[in-house]
């Protein structure tokens, strides 16, 4: 399973989550990196036919934390001059992002 670090942490077994979990992902998002948490759960007697009827809450619990996928998502070279030209022309620029707030803030400051 993959998802936001905040959500995945709540779905994992507490003993599988490192003590520095929040510190680690916040450190990377503050640097403008995109962070996705990864976790898994072994399903006993897995049967593809049965899997179709499983409820999400049944599967997405008691996960084992695997780690973070950390991606550098730099701005394209043309982005900063384009935004500067828009500002100079009196156009209000707004950023909408689904990323972590710290990632968005870091990129907005560039």
Identify the notable features of this structure and list them briefly.
6 helices, 39% helix, three-stranded antiparallel beta sheet, 17% strand, single chain, 110 residues, alpha+beta
User: What is the element string, with H for helices and E for strands?
Assistant: EHHEHHEHH
Which structural class is indicated by helix and strand composition? Answer: alpha+beta
Helix fraction by DSSP (H/I, runs of at least 4): 25-40%
Give the oligomeric state of the chains in this entry, treating copies of one chain as homo and distinct chains as hetero.
Answer: single chain
Mean pLDDT: 88
Q: Radius of gyration over alpha carbons? A: 19 Å
- Described by the principal axes of the CA atoms, the overall outline is elongated
Major sheet characteristics: 3 strands, antiparallel
Strand percentage: 15-25%
Spatial strand sequence of the major β-sheet: 1-2-3
Sequence stretches where pLDDT stays below 50 over 5 or more residues: none
Spatial separation of the terminal alpha carbons: 32 Å
Number of strands: 3
Helix count, per DSSP? 6
Number of domains: 1
């Amino acid at each position: 399973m993959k998802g936001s670090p905040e959500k995945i942490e709540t779905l994992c077994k507490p003993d599988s989550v490192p003590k520095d979990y929040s510190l680690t992902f916040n450190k990377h998002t503050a640097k403008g990196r995109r962070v996705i948490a990864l976790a898994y759960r072994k399903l006993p007697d897995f049967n593809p036919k049965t899997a179709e009827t499983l409820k999400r809450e049944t599967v997405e619990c008691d996960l084992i934390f695997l780690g973070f996928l950390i991606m550098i998502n730099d701005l394209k070279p043309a982005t900063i001059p384009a935004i500067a030209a828009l500002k100079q022309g009196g156009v209000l620029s707004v950023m909408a992002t689904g990323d972590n707030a710290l990632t968005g803030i870091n990129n907005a400051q560039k």
